[in-house]
Design brief:
The chain has helices at about 55-60, 85, 105-115, 120-130, 150-160, 180-195, 205-210, 230-235, 240-250, 255-269, and strands at about 15-25, 30-40, 45-50, 70-75, 80, 90, 165-170, 195-200, 215-220, 220-225. The protein has about 270 residues and is an alpha/beta fold. The longest helix has 16 residues, at about 180-195. It is globular, with a radius of gyration of 20 Å. The termini are far apart.
Amino acid sequence: MTSPTGEPVGGPPSALSIRGLTKRYADGTLALENLDLEIPAGSFFGLLGPNGAGKTTLIGAVCNLIRLTGGEILVFGRPGNGMAARRMIGIAEQEPNLDKFLTVYETLLYHGGYFGMDGAEASERAEQMIDAFDLRAKRDVEAPKLSGGMRRRLLLARALLHRPRLVILDEPTAGVDLELRHELWSYIRGLHEQGTTILLTTHYLEEAEALCDEIALISAGRIVARDTAEGLKKAHGADSLEQVYLKTVAGGRIATDQLEEVEAVRGDS
């Protein structure tokens, strides 16, 4: 039940509420099938799954970048296809989509304008994010001339510039060195401690286990398991999150003896 503003009656809204989400592409591919997902406000939520499981489609749907076949999305109680919801979301994409003609500062400045900031506010916030992500020396450098790690920093700075309440991080540390990965972990943890809700997708299982309060596993467009890392291991009789992943996301195709072989190899290395 919702109020006239779209917010649930009787309590604060979830950061993300998805009901019956379905997406079938024109070629017949069913990317999401009647998917339900509730993410509490203030949580650090991990979404794990193999390529093709539906993670990118789900994120595109939440960010109103694709047309749904069916279902409903609410962002803090507001319809996901409305401007109010869009302004509450910040996304750092897996594939950098930075304008090749804009400098670091201009990228952030224009992003602020897109979200309704006036020139002075956008400029001040851009400078804050440049310092927060150690981009000062690259302030006036165009995006294509940045290293891979610097582009990652810029993507995250851009995602956070308009102070979103829900931040979606799609493989934020893919391809970065160990030092930068831990720097980003530290910043993301601090952001969460300040009350920001975070949705993280990653192929690094140790990253999800280290950062996330709760983890959902997605396969073939459906959520197949959800709990804390420890809860998932207990529920599936597993010693590691990797074992849980293989047992659930692989749809049981990984036999017990194969799992034991993997663990034996790890023990010998």
